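Sequence in, structure out. Go.
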Amino acid sequence: MRYRLEIKQEARKQLKALPEEKRRNLGRRLDALQVDLSGDMKKLTAKTHEYRLRVGSLRVLFTLENDLTSVYAVKDRKKAYG
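Output:
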């Protein structure tokens, strides 16, 4: 199943602030996530549809509902959950 990918405005700003090499790596990981939800993915809470994708020291925070993956933040692991 292929999932639709939506990147919120705040996440776009965070992506643009990253070095090009990290952006490329994140792009590859988001493509894999979009195709079959592969990668180091973990559900954050039991009651919501929030997940995180681990890409090195970065965390991609997103929601997953039906066939829509909505990325709302891309942060360093030390700042992602606070």
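Check: The chain has a mean pLDDT of 93. The beta strands are 4-7, 41-43, 50-55, 58-65, 68-76.
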